[in-house]
Amino acid sequence: MKIPPTHPRYTSLMTREKLVRAWKAGVAVPEGLIAHGRGEAFDYLFGEETSAPALVAEKAAAAFLVRGKRPVISVNGNVAALAAREVVHLAKAIPAKIEVNLFHRSAARMNRIVRLLGTAGARDVLGPRPDARIPGLDSKRALAHRAGIHGADVVLVPLEDGDRAEALVRMGKVVISVDLNPLSRTTMMATVPIVDELTRALPTVEKFVKELRGDPKEVERISRTYDKAGNLKAVYSYLGWRLKGLMKTQQHRGR
Questions:
Q1: Exposed, middle or buried, 141 (CB in 10 Å: 0-12/13-18/19+)?
Q2: Percent of the chain, pLDDT > 90?
Q3: What is the domain-level CATH number for residue 97?
Q4: Does residue 90 fall inside a structural domain?
Q5: Total structural domains within the chain
Q6: What is the mean pLDDT of residues 221-247?
Q7: Fewest CB atoms within 10 Å of the CB: 96, 131, 156, 195?
Q8: Which residues contact 45 (CB under 8 A, 6 or more apart)?
C-alpha cells in the first residue's frame, strides 16, 4: 500500500504496514498486531511524543545498563519488526548481548528473527539453542540462555509479557521495560518501567548511555536516586494534564 507522506497519520500507518509485512514474513504474529494497537491507543493519549517522566526513566535505564556487568536486550517479533536497527545500535553502545525470546515460539520463526537482527548488524544473537529455564514460567518464554537472559544482571525487555518481567525480577535482575500502557502488568512489575513508544525510547536510551558511559559518579547517583513509584506518579499526572487539555480543546470547538 502506498501511503502519502502528507497523510496526517503517516508515521502511525507506516508502523502498521511494517508489522503487517512482518506478519506475512513470519516474524510477527497476529497477537502481536493486537498488542501494538493497544499500545498505539495509549500513544494518542500521550500526544505521540516522549513525556518528561519517560525521559527520566530512559536516563535511569541507561544508568542501570551502563552499570550492569552482564546486560542483555530481549527481543520478540514486534521489537524485531519495528526496531531491529535501534536494538543493534543500543546493544553496541552499552555493550550488551541480544537474545530472542518468544511466547509463540517455533524454530522457523526464531531463525527468521535472528536473520533479521543479523541484517541490521547484530552478531552472535542468542535464542535458538536455549540451555536454561526461567523459574516460575510454564510457557516457552521460560526458555533462555545461561550466557544471556538467564545469567544477566540487567535485562531490557521491550514490549514484554508481564509474567516474564515478574519472573525475572524474582530472579534478582534489574528489569527495564518499554511499554506504552502505564497500567500494564509489565509496567507494574519492571524495576525501571519506560512508558514510551519503542522507536522513540531506544534511541533516547542509547543517547543517555553514550553520555553516561564516561561518568561513573553520575551513573551511581542516578541508579541510587531513581524512584519508580514517583516516576509512575508523574506519568499518571502527565496523562491527567493531557486529558484536561483535550477536554478544553473539545469544549472550545463545540462553541
A1: buried
A2: 75
A3: 3.40.50.12640
A4: yes
A5: 1
A6: 95
A7: 131
A8: 239, 242, 243
